[in-house]
Design a protein that fits this description.
Order of helices and strands: EHEEEHHEEEE
Number of strands: 8
Strand content: 35-45%
Number of domains: 1
Helix content: 10-25%
Number of helices: 3
Largest sheet: 8 strands, mixed
Shape: globular
């Protein structure tokens, strides 16, 4: 779990409670606001923010095998980090449980919202 972050309810809890939708975040470049979703939940409490794009990728067959714990490991203990020109962060870490493959996680410039996660076949440590 990311330290010093208030726990947030996932979007399903927001909708069930009738309190509307989850908060939004500014888009890079100031072009409106992007809706955020909350996944990677445990017992109704979510530990990180994700984009709708990430949620749509998570259900794909080639990405469904990526465990939430692995994503959190990469975020909290990256072996390498690279800042893209648009401000997004790429983080890599080796996942022994996945046969020693390297998982790449892309975070938005706020350094806490997950945008993408996949095994990077071209990564060279």
């Amino acid at each position: 779990m990311i330290k010093n972050r208030p726990k947030r309810l996932c979007s399903a809890v927001y909708q069930a409670a009738g309190t509307g939708s989850p908060p939004t975040a500014p888009r890079p470049g100031g072009s409106g606001r992007k809706p955020l979703s909350y996944t990677l939940c445990r017992k109704g409490i979510c530990i990180v923010k994700t984009t709708k794009y990430f949620q749509s990728l998570k259900i794909r067959p080639d990405r469904s095998g990526i465990k939430d714990e692995w994503i959190m490991h990469v975020i909290e203990h990256p072996e390498r980090e690279y800042v893209q020109a648009d401000g997004r962060l790429r983080r890599w870490a080796k996942i022994e449980e996945a046969g020693g493959k390297y998982l790449r996680v892309i975070l938005l410039p706020d350094k806490e919202t997950i945008h993408n996660a996949f095994f990077d076949r071209g990564y060279k440590p």
